[in-house]
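User
New here, explain this?
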Amino acid sequence: MTRSAAQGDATPGQGVGARLLRKEDDRFLRGRGRFVGDLKLPGMREVAFARSPVAHGRILEIRIPPDLRGTVFTAKDLVGVKPIRAVSGLPGFRPSEQPALATDKVRYVGEPIAMCTGRSRAEAEDAAARIEVDFAEEPAVSDMLLGRRPDAPRLHADWPDNVYLESLVVGGESFTGLDAAVKITREFRTSRQCMSPMEGKGVLAHWDTRREQLIVETSTQMPHIIRNGFCDFLGLEQRQVRVAAPDVGGGFGHKGVLSPEELCVAWGARALGQPLRWIEDRREQLTANANCREHHYIVTAYADARGKLLALEAEASVDAGAYSAFPFTGGIEAAQIASILPGPYDFPRYRCRTWSVASNKPPILPYRGVARTGVCFAMELMLDAIAREVGREPYEIRLENLVRPEQMPFDNITNKHFDSGDYPECLRRLVAAIDIPAVRERQRLGEPDGRLIGLGLSIYNEQAAHGMSVYGAWGIPILPGYEQATARILPDGGLEIRAGIQSHGQGLETTLAQVANEILGIDPARVSVIHGDTETSPYSPGTYASRSMVMAGGAGATAGRQLVPRLATIGASLLQADPSQVRFEGGHVRSASGSVSIEAIARTWYLQPHELPADVDRGGLEVTAGYRAERDSGTFSYGAHAALVAVEPRTGEIELLRYVVVEDGGVLVNPMIVDGQIYGGVAQGIGTALYEEMRFDAAGQPLASTLADYLLPGSVEVPDVQILHMETPSPYTEFGVKGIGEGGAIGPPAAIANAVNDALRSFGVEVTSLPVTPRRVVEAIAARSSGAPQPTLSTGFERA
């Protein structure tokens, strides 16, 4: 079944489907949020780091002024601190060892060399500026393709090359005898970006001498996994470490890794016996700590004369930086490319080889829509190229190749299990909303100002809420089992939900309360969601991969349902009714003779236990329940995006005129929050498409260290976005929900680049690199007659 909801419609009630205002917004809008930067402890000292100014070199000497002794620390001081290791069980993976502070060698600009403490951040920064380091510089690997060459400088001396992981995925029929009317090869490149949450990373640590416990308050998406890292690398037992996340001002993956700075601050707090705090500044975030997404593709597509895909072969490289980041590893992004490049399309032959390449750049971190944005860009530009070759509308080519609803559930060519959906209908609704005939007529008439109009489409799917069947095969330090939640009814009939996930902007305090309302009928205003603290919440791998609503929502619903028979037993006793003759609904236990509220039942359990029946459940009104989806290979949400642009061919300037999204995230717990997720994701996707680029020179020096150099889209650059919803329930999850947090960011680069190429089709050129900047547009037009040869595959595939 497919449910459709027009934007603006409201679902009655306050449970699943209601457009409930976000509970957490009241404190944020009134300045009452509590972030790491708001935390202070007596005797607290601030931390700054002396960082490497060179990308690759041996450390010959570190000189610390005598008056700074005792306030500045280098690697030799960090006795007992192990290097950060993020390993994978994928065959052939090579782990790296990232020291908390550089030891004998530096491998990227910005690598921490010394931790400096002071009474203020300014004092700590002044100390860092006085640290002198002598280097013996070595050649840097600044380009992943050059880094793959046999003669490239080695980042890690014990490796035979600079590759963390090489992957190969082959699926479907043999390529032998393949006869295709159309064969197209394209080369694509996506630039390195920097994820830029409003709040950078921050950590405050102190050692509790009474409890013999390290208490770390840090801006993180995954407190329990980060605690595992602290224990592993500091040599502490789990009981000795508590990790708590206060309010988190955005994450996007940046807050999902254990950074060397966090490790240093935690060590220092224990060693010095003083609270230490580090707040990441924007220069650190841009140049050293939040790099992501740098892909290179060569793709060949084979199709028949109508544009039906017959085969796809590709090679892809990912610049993974100098170290494998904990816990996701340096190999996960490229490995994912090989398995998700086919997207939502059904075709019979496939092979893809990928490389995760080490370079003298900061470690690559997982960013919203890990790998999906890049593969969507490559795949969707290939579909448009096929459409031009066969002379059909791009949407017609997609309809020719999309998985059909009658095939669901569908196992694609890389064994991804699509749970449900109607992809062609999603695309048809997009086509109707953007009104392609009107756009083509406008193009035919031309613009009075000489600009060129272009229309671009993209469609993608997003595997979310992966379970053990997926992560177990990857062998990384995140193994989701049964997600747990605790539901506790309080003496006044209110409710606490304790969950191990961590909200960093998704509205989980609201949506988990809506789930509680759906099951127990308790007003969401009377539901407190307690999360993000290893001491007070059940173990969880945390918030990533659009998993929280599927997993924590499912666990919360399961815990609520397990409370119902306990409530019914007590309620039946109060009503003097047979327990088999009562029902629970709307927050009351009801019988033919009357009803009794949760408040009265809670009062009886806590305050009037002498009135409890003899057969009452002695577990009381508190339940911890575990949840795993019926099939835990993940849900597949999907969406289609359309962009209408105007391009000035003389200057290359691009204006977004209109943007439309049709998405299907299963049953929407709160459609208004989903809209917010999509709006934000589209804004980030526009940044990927048109503005954001962290460039490096040949020596490995970052060329954008401030927001004057690294451009982020603002309100002027983001047009009004029209969102249309479809709701196809997942057959495997509670309420039929799917993960949807990343989808908005996946589609824009492909849709916008296709729109620009549509505008430029009269020039016979295509822009195939991100971001699509004015410079790249002008250069493509200028080179339209250069006759440069197309790239060829170098994977070494043999016809078989």
In short: The chain has a mean pLDDT of 94.
